[in-house]
Amino acid sequence: MTPNYILSLSLSGHFRLLLRLRPINLFRSKMSSFHHHYDSDMNGTKPTIKKSKLSFITPSEIDAQFSHHDSAVARINNGSFGCCPSSVISAQNEWQLRFLRQPDDFYFNGLQDGIQRSRSVIRSLINADHVDEISLVDNATTAAAIVLQQTSWAFAEGLFRKGDAAVMLHYAYGAVKKSVEAYVTRAGGHVIEVQLPFPVTSNQEIITEFRRALERGKADGKKVRLAVIDHITSMPSVVIPVKKLVQICREEGVDQVFVDAAHGIGCTDVDMQEIGADFYTSNLHKWFFCPPSVAFLYCRKAQKGFDLHHPVVSHEYGNGLAIESAWIGTRDYSAQLVVPSALEFINRFEGGIEGIKRRNHDTVVEMGQMLAKAWGTNLGAPPELCASMIMVGLPPCLEISIDSDCLKLRTHLRVKFGVEVPIYFRAPKDGEIIRSIVTGYARISHQVYNKIENYYKFRDAINQLVKDGFTCKLLHE
Ligand SMILES: Cc1ncc(COP(=O)(O)O)c(C=O)c1O
């Protein structure tokens, strides 16, 4: 094997020599630029390299950090539940033991400072004005309940009038839609869904549909009180032009804008000044390497008058959402306390969070294109509308004909082939015939632990099904 070398400039401004071990093909060589780089110790070839500053995590260290993953499974679904490296799990265990060792000391002398440190880390990462704008909660579902609960009170207390509208995407996450039903529809709000095309080809399609929905909301002199906008929709997965949509909301006088970015931090650009929403939530257990479960909810401080409370009321009720959320009764707070440890892990990678994001994006696009080419299908969105996940069309001959086929096929791939990947049903439109168009799209993810073999395993599993003449009807019995 002939090693080859590339010289690159690290973020700290030092040149470093990268040793590429396996320049095999396009995919592999691109993957290897981050999976297989090492600081050179080539006997003085680069004597001035400061190793301590430049020793990024190595491929074998990455493997060790995720050695608890089931090696029999090609896990190309980071999007659903994220991942947590062993160094962060150890840090979490430390916190848990600290509590169990002396709970009172932990409660009086550790917990609140620890949560404050985690909130500060998030504040600077997302460019919020003040740490008070950041609350830590269990997950995006809880964050949505907090925001929507205050919408419900606004209706109940006469601030909003019955029939006033809330706008959300048709592809909003199922659990969040239920929350809108429970808190907004039930309170008298009129919910309007933004229909989005899929496959999608450009931001403009999304913007046009969004404007249309706002127009409907404002018909008959009604007001649009709330817009719920996903930053990255879950299924199908598409990056939404949130900055533009928030700007449109401001122009059109929408009272409140909530961005549901369950997949935000670590996956796409998250800057509160840029985006300009009133509320923004992102899970930290999906793309930020925290254990389940922790998310942040950002609430813009300049916007006075929001009556936000944690749905679990406890001693701190009335002391501000961040403080309320930091004590909602006796429970395990360790996931909220390891945010600095997760950042420490992230900073072992070249370019930190930005580097991870960029490489995940580049590789998932490459893998998506590789799969679409192998199956003769198409991507569900162009690369610029994808972050670290991408939708890939499955061969039409699999005859994915109804929603439930997706879950059955997903289970079949897990059980028979050791591949974990979610699948989306794209119903045929009038005149379209199943078997002649793509009706199923797989959502593939890329995270630092993934290897090219994971995607080859998926490709080969589908190729095998096609070769065997498999159709989803076979799963109907
Ligand atoms: C867009 C979106 N919102 C909300 C959620 C809910 O996240 P959680 O289950 O962590 O609360 C998800 C989960 O995938 C999601 O994709």
UniProtKB/TrEMBL annotation:
The family database entries (InterPro entries) matched by this protein are listed as: Aminotrans_V_dom (IPR000192), PyrdxlP-dep_Trfase (IPR015424), PyrdxlP-dep_Trfase_major (IPR015421)
| Protein name, as recorded | L-cysteine desulfhydrase-like
Q: Which PANTHER family match?
A: HERCYNYLCYSTEINE SULFOXIDE LYASE (PTHR43092:SF2), L-CYSTEINE DESULFHYDRASE (PTHR43092)
Pfam families (UniProt xref): Aminotran_5 (PF00266)
Species name: Tripterygium wilfordii (Thunder God vine)
Mind telling me which Gene3D superfamilies this protein's record contains? Type I PLP-dependent aspartate aminotransferase-like (Major domain)
Q: Which UniProt keywords apply?
A: Pyridoxal phosphate
Stretch forming the signal peptide:
none
Q: Which domain of life is it from?
A: Eukaryota
Domain spans labelled Aminotransferase class V: 113-303
